[in-house]
UniProtKB/TrEMBL annotation:
Secretion signal span: 1-22
Species per Swiss-Prot/TrEMBL record: Marinobacter zhanjiangensis
Domain of life: Bacteria
Keyword tags: Signal
This protein's name: Virginiamycin B lyase
InterPro entries noted in UniProt: Vgb, WD40/YVTN_repeat-like_dom_sf
Length: 330
């Protein structure tokens, strides 16, 4: 494990206040679907390759499910009690879920409901947290308690595990770059992490000691965007130059920005979970302006993860108030 000296050498912090609200992103149109399985914490929707299929997991209900947004119909795939599914991603092979409490990644056949389990390896906690496909359809993932970044070759059932240098760094949100490198938010410290093509881990220290990055996303040109949950900032790391720029979010230091995603115009969207009801806010880096907050109709409770569907130009997320939400961009 090495520190990421090329990036650290170029580290620059610029704190910027948003400019005038003119040309800010328009407030999205929100639609919520009530999930009938009460108190199951539906979360982490993923738009599947099949038409009208949105996957999500019930973290407190031990299920993976689909929603057809055209008809509102739902289908539930029950998992073993105690699985604690945390995240789901899907492609033509089916839906992969993170069995957070049961130490495996599962693959569900949408037609038969059959499940193939990939058991995690190694000592200590094996709490697969958040997953992301790489360019070959294999899976990078984080282990928050295990303090590792992992990679699964799906066809070969082969794992590679990369320890994070900082103790109790709590690897959390993850995204995979165009050059097939994972970038990870280390929620237990003020750092981001990555793994290079040789399998060497590197860490990037954020400028503020109190920062706690939780979720992140990445543009095609190598800009990593992240939200600082602890102190209420939206940040951007240029992975080529190492420059970091940050903006205080509209809700202030107690805003608790959590779920976040980028849209097709490289605008950042995030949910302030420190407010009740939770608030969805967009940020345009061209004008450095924030949108007017869109409040979650059900309140949201806590919105934990979000994805962007480019075909529908919509954001999807689940809530602790037992709903799945589509935010259609204008």
């Amino acid at each position: 494990m090495k520190s990421f000296s090329p990036i650290l050498a170029g580290l620059v912090l610029a704190l910027a206040l948003p400019v005038a609200q003119a040309e800010a992103p328009a407030t999205p149109d929100l639609k919520e679907w009530d999930i009938p399985w009460d108190n199951t914490r539906p979360r982490d929707p993923w738009v599947g390759p099949q038409d009208n299929t949105v996957w999500f997991v019930g973290q407190a209900g031990d299920y993976v499910a689909t929603l057809n947004p055209e008809t509102g119909s739902l289908k539930r795939y029950r998992l073993d009690p105690g699985t604690g599914p945390h995240n789901v991603i899907a492609d033509e092979r089916g839906a992969f879920y993170a069995g957070n409490q049961a130490e495996h990644i599962g693959l569900i056949d949408p037609d038969s409901g059959e499940i193939r389990k990939f058991r995690l390896e190694g000592d200590g906690p094996k709490d697969v947290h958040t997953m992301a496909f790489d360019a070959n359809g294999d899976i990078f993932f984080t282990e928050q308690g295990g303090n590792r970044i992992g990679w699964l070759d799906v066809d070969e059932y082969d794992f590679r595990m990369f320890d994070v240098e900082t103790e109790w760094a709590r690897p959390y949100g993850i995204v995979v770059s165009q050059d097939n490198r994972p970038w990870v938010a280390l929620f237990g410290t003020n750092k981001l992490a990555t793994v290079d093509a040789k399998g060497t881990s590197h860490e990037v220290t954020l400028p503020r000691e109190g920062a706690r990055p939780r979720r992140l996303d990445m543009t095609d040109d190598g800009m990593v965007w992240y939200v600082d949950y602890a102190e209420g900032f939206l940040g951007r790391l240029n992975t080529d130059s190492g420059q970091i720029q940050e903006w205080p979010v509209p809700g202030g230091p107690d805003a608790r920005p959590y779920a976040m995603a980028l849209d097709d115009q490289n605008r950042s969207w995030f949910v302030e979970t420190g407010h009740s009801p939770n608030r969805l806010i967009g940020f345009d880096p061209k004008t450095e302006s924030f949108s007017e907050p869109a409040t979650i109709p059900s309140g949201g409770g806590t919105v934990r993860h979000m994805v962007f569907d480019p075909e529908a130009r919509a954001l999807w997320f689940g809530t602790d108030t037992n709903t799945v939400v589509r935010a259609t961009l204008r």
